[in-house]
Amino acid sequence: MNIESLLKNSELFNGMSDAAFKKITAMGSLKKIHQNSMIFLEGEKGSSFYVLIEGSVRLFKSAPDGREVTVKLAAPGEIFAEVILFEKDHYPVSATAVADSRLFAMNRASFNSLLENASFRNEFISVLMKKQRYLAGRILYLAAFDVEERFFRFLADRYGRRNSYTIDISKKDLASAIGTIPETFSRLIQRLTQRGIIRWEGDTLELADRFWETQDYE
User: How many other CB atoms are there within 10 angstroms of residue 73's CB atom?
Assistant: First the structure.
């Protein structure tokens, strides 16, 4: 799939008119980010926001005790840092590449000029409302499910329901993605291994036969 097709199917551009799409792509640029490289830091003055084209990006906040609390693990097609368009001049979170990634970067000042057009502005607001619903769902997810259920829901959402996975992120990042700390996640993996539910060696994770048939993670 070429870059244009990826962008048209992204969280930001999906459903937008061809006219709006052409305006946005004309003012953006592609960037390559290496694994573990910082994209921006919490509190840094924001000049651009992004669509993830390829790879994986972790958005996180720094807690007072020094812990990094993951807000979201962005997947290809998702938009991030768009908050600088409306609410703040500075990034409210930090962003780092979990894997080698490609981003479509859009300059804040240039994009604000597009928002002066009422038709374009209404289309973009519709996109942001979808993002707001995601964040509300994230809060419910953390409050309603225990860490074990969040782990299996993460597997299903990111990789699909299968019995064997190639995990493409570190255990630390996976722990953050499900809203827990590495120590708690390690204890969970030990319990699941002892119960014969999982087997994890290197980047290969295998589940017990017919595991998903016995679960109700909708």
Answer: 20
What sign does the CA torsion over 182, 140, 66, 91 have? Answer: positive
Domain map (residue ranges) of the chain? 3-144, 147-214
Residue type, 99: A
CATH 2.60.40.1120 for the 3-144 domain, yes or no: no
CATH number of 147-214: 1.10.10.10
Burial profile 161-182: b = 16 or more Cβ within 10 angstroms, e = fewer: eeeebebebeebbbbbbbbbee
Q: Which pTM value belongs to this model?
A: 0.63
Q: What are 192-203's pLDDT values in tens digits?
A: 999 999 899 988
Q: Is 38 helix (H, G, I), strand (E, B) or coil?
A: strand
pLDDT tens track for 1-60: 566 777 777 766 776 777 777 887 888 889 999 999 999 999 999 889 998 988 999 998
d(CA 149, CA 153): 6
